[in-house]
């Protein structure tokens, strides 16, 4: 099953030039569109670690959820639709 994966891309020279990208890959967990407390989780991979227990080991801080940087309807601008059965999760169109 294909799911949405959102990750942060940072230039190696400057960590100020970070941006969010959407990838279509097989993930262990679905990506929530409107999580209740996005600030408590790192959204950089499908581990969804707590902010005080980052397991990626990449030396960086927490990756923010797009709702934190782009607002509540971020997924509309990205062309992502909610699943009909589970409206809080992302749906991919083939």
Could you please describe the fold and organization of this structure?
By secondary structure, this protein is mainly beta. Helix content is 10%, strand content 23%. It has 2 helices and 4 strands. It has helices at residues 66-70, 74-77; strands spanning 2-10, 18-26, 81-82, 90-91. The protein has a two-stranded antiparallel sheet. It is elongated and about 35 Å long.
Query: How would you sum up the major sheet?
Result: 2 strands, antiparallel
Radius of gyration: 13 Å
If helices are DSSP runs of H or I spanning 4 or more residues, what is the number of helices? 2
Specify the oligomeric state. single chain
Low-confidence stretches: 8-18
Taken as a percent bin, the fraction of beta residues is 15-25%
Global mean pLDDT: 73
Shape: elongated
Gap between N and C termini: 11 Å
What percent of the residues sit in helical stretches (DSSP H or I)? under 10%
Helix vs. strand class: mainly beta
* Total number of strands: 4
User: Strand order within the widest sheet?
Assistant: 1-2
Order of helices and strands: EEHHEE
At a glance:
This protein is mainly β and 94 residues long. 10% of the residues lie in helices and 23% in strands.
What tags apply to this protein structure?
single chain, 94 residues, mainly beta, two-stranded antiparallel sheet, 2 helices
Map the helices and strands.
Layout: E1 2-10, E2 18-26, H1 66-70, H2 74-77, E3 81-82, E4 90-91
Antiparallel strand pairs: 1-2, 3-4
């Amino acid at each position: 099953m294909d799911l949405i994966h959102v990750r942060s891309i940072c230039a190696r020279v400057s960590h100020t030039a970070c941006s969010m990208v959407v990838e279509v890959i097989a993930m262990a967990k679905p990506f929530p569109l409107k999580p209740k407390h996005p600030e408590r989780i790192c959204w950089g991979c499908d581990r969804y670690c707590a902010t005080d227990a980052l397991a990626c080991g990449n030396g960086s801080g927490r990756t923010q959820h797009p709702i934190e940087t782009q607002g509540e309807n971020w997924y509309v601008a990205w062309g992502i639709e909610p699943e009909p059965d589970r409206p809080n999760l992302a749906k991919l169109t083939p």
